Amino acid sequence: MLWRTGVDRARAWLVRLLTATLLACGVAYAQPLKPDREQPIHLEADSGTFDDAKKTAVFTGNVVLTQGTLTIRADRLVVTQSTDGFQRGVAYGDPASFRQKRQGTDEWIEGWAKRMEYDSRTETLELFEDARMRRGQDEVRGSYISYNAQTELFRVLGSVKGESTGGGSSGRVRAVIQPKSRDGEERASGRPR
Question: What's the whole-model pTM score?
């Protein structure tokens, strides 16, 4: 009887080990995660107003929107939906911010501005007034930044005469771009790897 119990324990242990191994292999071969735009949107705010007739929602007070790897923080967020299902969001803050992992990389892109507008149809993000974006170690600042997520094209403008640019800036576009080696890695000590 003792021998049988020992065999049963060994068999149960082996089954658990094989199950754990198969689960680990299943995770390794799983399909990649859906892009952020295909993930559900989660919203938190102090208050919200929904107008179904106008397809508009307004969230105010400590607004936090998450969708996959995307996080937007704002004082106020206005979201409208077109008849064909595309959304347009306008975030206001001092500053409003966003952070999102770039698809297929370990790199994050972040941005800050007093007003941010996102159009899901064109996948374009516009930052207005004291605008700043950072991708990895690279950073760009200006009065206005437009970023197209499909083409990864940035457009940056300095301030209009008399407009604040924050931080005592002269109103010109400012950028910091880290050197990369020919194989795309950052250089160490000024020498390619």
Answer: 0.70
Q: Is the dihedral angle over the CA atoms 17, 22, 28, 30 positive or is it negative?
A: negative
Q: For strand 138-148 and strand 42-44, is the pairing parallel, antiparallel, or unpaired?
A: unpaired
Give the span between the Cα atoms of 14 and 20, in whole angstroms: 10
pLDDT in tens, 22-81: 333 333 333 346 787 788 889 999 999 999 999 999 999 999 998 889 899 999 999 999
The amino acid present at 109, given as its one-letter code, is I
Amino acid identity at 185: E
Between residues 147 and 24, the one the model is more confident about: 147
User: What burial class does residue 4 get, using C-beta atoms within 10 Å of its C-beta: 0-12 exposed, 13-18 middle, 19+ buried?
Assistant: exposed
Lookup: tokens for 129: 């007034």
Torsion angle in degrees (nearest 10) through CA of 157, 149, 124, 155: 10
Return all residues near 134 (Cβ < 8 A) that are at least 6 apart: 109, 110, 111, 140
Identify the bridge partners of residue 99 per DSSP, sorted by sequence position: 71, 110
